[in-house]
Amino acid sequence: MKIYILQTQDQRTLNKDLEWSSEADRNLVYRTSHRDAALNQLIELNAKDINLRASIVECDADAKGRPLLTAALQASNESPSKSDCSNAA
Question: Whole-prediction pTM value?
Answer without folding.
Answer: 0.74
